[in-house]
User: What shape does this take?
Amino acid sequence: MRLRRNDASNTRLRKNKQGHCSEMDDLECFVVTEQLATSRKYKLCKGRVKTILLAFFIASTIALALAVIVILIKHSDTNPKGPNTQSADGVCLTPGCVIAAARVMSAMDMNVNPCDDFYNFACGTWVRQHVIPEDKSSFGTFTKLRDDVSVISKSVLEASNKADDAEAIKKSRNYYKACINEDKIEELGLTYIQKYMDGFGGWPVLGSNPGGNWNSSDYNIEDLLIYSRKGTNYLPLIDVGVTQDDKHPTKHILYIDQPDLGMPSRDYYLKGRDDKTLMAYQTMIQESAVAFGADETTAANDAKDIVDMEIELANITVPKEERRDPEKLYNKMTLGELSNNFTGVDWKKLVKGTMQIIGLSIDDSEPVLAIAPPFLEKIGDLLTKYSSRVIVNYVLSRRVLGKTFYLPKVFTDIKLKYRKVLSGSATESPRWQSCGDNVKNTMPEVVGRLFVEDAFRKEAKKDVLDLVGKLRVSFKGMIDDLPWMESATKQVAKEKADFIEPRIGYSDVVYNDSALNAMYENVTVYTDDPLRTLISASEAAVIKRLYDLRKDVDKNDWDMSPATVNAYYNPETNQITFPAAILQPPFYSHDQPAYLNYGGIGYVIGHEITHGFDDQGRLYDKTGNLHSWWSDTDAAKFKERAQCIIDQYSNFTVPGTGGMTLNGVNTQGENIADNGGIKESYYAYREWIKASRNGKEEDMLPGMNYTSSQLYFLNAAQIWCDESRNEDKILSIYTSRHSITKYRVYGPMQNFDEFSKAWNCPVGSYMNPAKKCAVW
Assistant: This one.
């Protein structure tokens, strides 16, 4: 929404089209791509008893559902309403309804009063019966669906190549097979990574060992960063690249920005030098260097120096809270002006050298976006303060430790100790699952093609497109009803809503063999060396991205693979996208009642539409141009209502975090979208009842004495069923643009009068507070 979208507070991050997380440290990838819940599977620890009981419960539930289906279908055959209705006394008896009833009921804790705690009423049993797997930091509805998609991806990637398969498809399968070959990785050892380090001039901490042999006289910071840029979209120290131009959204432009850090958030560096998470990070760097051959004392000293420098680096970065306004990030100047405005770095050499990677010459008049001026003013002093040894050690540690997945097991074991402290996960995910994710991140359209061919039902596209139309009408009706917005602003807002372009399922390119082959022609798959394949794919992605500078923006380009359980809104193109993988229960099923589809995928659609009108999206016009179309009065009234949302969510205290609260500022965009989305879809559903059923309510689910409106809210809550480790909650508060899942139930439903009416919640109860917040 972006259910879990890239950190759009950094405007260019959401525009890095592929992401290519396989070339990153898996923790960096976790932060950049969605804070979203990474894919997870069932936990296999704490004894076999829980596993056996869980398996018995699941099997029993399925058996019961099948038995009920048989009984109810037989009953429907003798029903006076006729066999085609499969309905009796206002109860839906279709197989789809029976399966849905079993799913919804099995998650609920009916001992909880829904007005006291709707999340635990809707999800209490689900949370108790789903144990967090050892390899994951949390487990939820999204996670389970992602695991299901991972199994399908595994199947299609393990299939044998056919002679007439597109070359890109063959590459994806060959890459997967190389990736899962752990014996070969152990056999190859450090051979290729040592050559990779030599390309940087050596890693100083290694001394005279292979991969070391660094000569300080060859040091030049700009040359170091340019070389680093060749193989990754994510840079240490200073970020340089190409992004979409917010004020000319059909074009691309160069940008200079602060970098991502080695840890997921700057907050971890500001907690004190002896903070356990920071020390675990330092230990990982130290132990990894020793595993590469470094002297233990040298590694300890160099690791401390690296972290000392990175603490200062974190301190000069601009906090996320100050990076939410895209107007403040849009600081356009020429390359010559950039060099004059910010000292301490040879900006001309750095930028020109970066574009020379693709052989493109630029001059001093080239436009550049300086996204974080406060950082750019200070980075030169920091680079002067620290020795070349510390700086090169830092850059190499970031580049090398991001590739340990393709190195011998000793390196993944070292990183796992750090992950345990950071997020609470104690084991690695299955190799096949991680490899499938890596191939999907590297070749998203190709894996998406294989997934769609295997698992996508064509009617989903038509159904969801119909829902988009209904929710668009609903949102425009909400705009008309706003008491605080001027009529002129309302008209422009409705025009923007009309211009939102929906993209559903998959892009046409996934079935274009020639286009797929051309897209990945520069990716070389080394079947005997997955690390070389990774680096080849990363270099190809960088080249592709840099070439975009002189190309128009392709509105047909997707930011996600069709095999992704997610959705997103892109303000620069005014598009909403729903990949094929999210179009499954509980979000959507052609065979389940409309109230479940509106409470599921309808809620998601409404969320994405509202992103066009959240604190960031509202600053873009209907064509995606960063251009304010608000009157000063309406803008002030919007901010006043947004502040109510900020304050409300900032007062949610998260158990297990030592008293931490949600970050209402960083999560405001997603919270505004949640609050708008649940209303849009509910109103659209009620209009559908009037128009399509003459006001007659849909049949209830079997065994559930709940109204259609109540079932709408139940499904809207159950898409957020989730349980997290305490470490993951802290990580989420620091890094995520999304509120922790249970508060995505509490907040929107506390603020929505129709929820309280549906469940008869008295004013003053937890789910129906007297004070409510509303933007849309």
